Amino acid sequence: MFGQLLKRLIEPQTEPLPDTDARLALGALLVRIAKSDHSYAVEEISRIDRILASRYNLNAVEAAKLRAHCEKVEHDAPDTVRFTRAIKDAVPYEDREAVVEALWDVALADGMRSDEENSILRMASSFLGVNDRDSALARQRVEAGRK
After folding, report:
1. How confident is the model at residue 121 (pLDDT cuts 50, 70, 90)?
2. Is the pTM of this model over 0.85?
3. For the Co-chaperone DjlA N-terminal domain, which residue ranges apply (predicted)?
C-alpha cells in the first residue's frame, strides 16, 4: 500500500489521488511539519490524531492507526512537494486554507515556533496555493483558539 502511494507521489499526476491516498498525504504532511524542528512532541502527535479524527470522522483508535501509517509514508517519502501536490490535486481550493490552519495547529501544538516549522509552512502554503496573508490569518485563528 505504501509503495503504491509513494510511486503515485513520485510519478507525474494525471488525475487526483484516491481519497485514502489523499488522507495519507495530508497526515504525512502533518507529521512532517511536526518533525521539522527535530522534535516530535506528544502534544503534536495528539493534535495530529485530533485533526485526522475530526477531518475524516474517525474514532481515536482509527485516527492513531492512520497517523501511524502516515508516519511510515512521511519517513519514506522523497520530499514535501509531493504531499502538497497530492493535497492540492485532491482538495478543493476553498478547503486548502483549512489544511494550512491544520498545519499551523500542529506546528504550534508544542507551544514553540521554530524557524524550520515557519519555513516548511511557508513552502507548503505556497505549494497549496494559499497566499502568505491567508496563511497568516490561519495562524492567527489557531493562536486565538489557544487563549
Report:
1. very high
2. no
3. 23-140
